[in-house]
Amino acid sequence: MPAQALFPTLVHVARLPERSRATLNRELKREAAQLRDADAAGRRWSARNYPNGYTSYGSLDRLHRMSSTFATLEAKLRRHVLAYARDLGYDLDGRALSMTDCWINVMGRNAAHGLHLHPTSTISGTYYVQVPRGAPGLKFEDPRLDRLMAAPPRRADAGQPWVTVPAVAGQVVLFESWLRHEVPQQRVAAERISVSFNYNWF
């Protein structure tokens, strides 16, 4: 066919093995509650920047270096990150791709995470610990959106400028850090719990 797809945007979506993820998620959920109770600075930061939720992003953002549970998660994510890097064609010969940041997010009802990217990282991602029915997924923006000047609307079967990857407990989603994304408003009462992280190669 004469039309070709150029410059694809790849997103890695996979679930951790069922046998280990139930125990890991139980421990992550327990530590998330402990962190929220103990992290006064994080609660203050969240009140200003993450209403109706708690995140350790502004206070404790290297949990993989502080907790054996988060270190275990890092070890389980490693093969997914390396497989994704291969799919992206990254040349990592002699270069270490390492987790630099790792933090917890607890979304209560009406919490949301606005459109953003991770400008100083290479690969970013989220691992879902607890996802109640009806909780929002991860919404990605077409990176060409701000360049679609004078373009007519697209047919429904042609794809839209936003794609939402559903949130599923035990699932990891990886994406290149320049890809803008958001989490729409959480409309259910039960808490949505996730771990977000960044990797870099220098």
Please, could you describe this protein's structure?
The chain is an alpha+beta fold and 202 residues long. The chain has a single domain, classed as q2cbj1_9rhob like domain (Jelly Rolls), CATH 2.60.120.620. It is 26% helix and 28% strand. The protein has helices at 18-38, 40-49, 68-88, and strands at residues 11-15, 53-55, 98-107, 113-116, 123-130, 138-141, 162-165, 171-176, 181-183, 192-200. Strands 1-8-5-10-3-2 form a six-stranded antiparallel beta sheet. Strands 4-9-6-7 form a four-stranded antiparallel beta sheet, with no helix packed on it. α1 (18-38) crosses α3. The model has no long low-confidence stretch (mean pLDDT 95).
Brief rundown of the structure:
The radius of gyration is 18 Å and the shape is globular. Helix content is 26%, strand content 28%.
User: Can you say what the CATH homologous superfamily is?
Assistant: q2cbj1_9rhob like domain
What is the share of helical residues? 25-40%
Number of helices: 3
Order of helices and strands: EHHEHEEEEEEEE
The main pleated sheet reads as: 6 strands, antiparallel
Q: Terminal Cα separation, in Å?
A: 41 Å
Major sheet strand order: 1-8-5-10-3-2
CA radius of gyration is: 18 Å
Return the domain count: 1
Low-confidence sequence ranges: none
The CATH architecture: Sandwich
> What is the total tally of β strands?
10
Give average pLDDT, whole number. 95
CATH class: Mainly Beta
Class by alpha and beta content: alpha+beta
CATH topology: Jelly Rolls
Portion in beta strands: 25-35%
What general outline do the C-alpha atoms trace? Answer: globular
